[in-house]
Amino acid sequence: MHGLANPARFLRFARWLTPLCLGLGLAVTTGALAYGLLGAPADRLMGETVRILFLHVPAAWLGMAGWMTIAGASVTELVWRHPLAAIAARAAAVPGAVFTAICLVTGSIWGRPTWGTWWVWDGRLTSMLVLLFLYFGYIALSDVARRDGGNGRVAAIFGIVGAINVPIINRSVVWWNSLHQPPSITMGKSAIDAAFLWPLLAAAIGFTLIFAGVVLARMRAILADAQAEARLRRKAMVSDPFEALA
């Protein structure tokens, strides 16, 4: 972690890791989704709607994982003052929000034929919607801190406090009477048939690699913007070329 505190060292590391994550993630995800849409059998109970699993489940996982990335980076920023921690948190916020939105949309599409409705104020659905609003709040706070030149402590604290919602999402189907099915995959066992389980895990790995590649690409873009802004600021401070020689 401390070895990558130097932005130049991080950029050398991210320059080759970004396309690797994106390329490998796209390949694995394409294969998993192709099998899920074309090769997987229909489920005995859910029929053809089971195919949305291969997008919905990875999106739900990455919606939660994205916020845990923000929380972990926020702790690193506040405790160890890591110079890239706030940038990592900002970079993870938008893709995390996108995956959360995909989870909600695909869940509604899945719920219509399964439950007979697009939306219910179920514990799992409601807590996932809260997560999307938390993402919006974090993005707004971090943008204000960047624009006003603040240190981002408020956004970091918000990122840590908001992590309380992640275990609520995870355990909501256990704690409350819920339309949403209980956990199908738990520690050491799975209730999902192997015909769906392995391509589902492949899709989760592929989307995770894409998420990592997007976060790295966004971190590189944020650092490039900061460097360009610093150069412009130095040029503005030295408007007279003779003044720079004084």
Automatic annotation (TrEMBL):
GO biological process: cytochrome complex assembly
UniProt topology in membrane: Multi-pass membrane protein
Domain Cytochrome c assembly protein stretches: 40-180
GO cellular component entries: plasma membrane
InterPro entries named in the record: Cyt_c_assembly (IPR002541), Cyt_c_biogenesis_CcmC (IPR003557), Cyt_c_biogenesis_CcsA/CcmC (IPR045062)
GO molecular function list: heme binding; heme transmembrane transporter activity
Location(s) in or outside the cell: Cell inner membrane; Membrane
Transmembrane segments: 58-80, 92-111, 123-142, 154-176, 196-217
Keywords for the protein's UniProt record, in alphabetical order: Cell inner membrane, Cell membrane, Cytochrome c-type biogenesis, Membrane, Transmembrane, Transmembrane helix, Transport
Superkingdom in the source lineage: Bacteria
Pfam families: Cytochrom_C_asm (PF01578)
Predominant location: membrane
NCBIfam families per the UniProt record, alphabetical: ccmC
Function: Required for the export of heme to the periplasm for the biogenesis of c-type cytochromes.
Family indicated by similarity: Belongs to the CcmC/CycZ/HelC family.
Full protein name: Heme exporter protein C
Organism taxonomic ancestry: Bacteria, Pseudomonadati, Pseudomonadota, Alphaproteobacteria, Sphingomonadales
Gene designation: ccmC
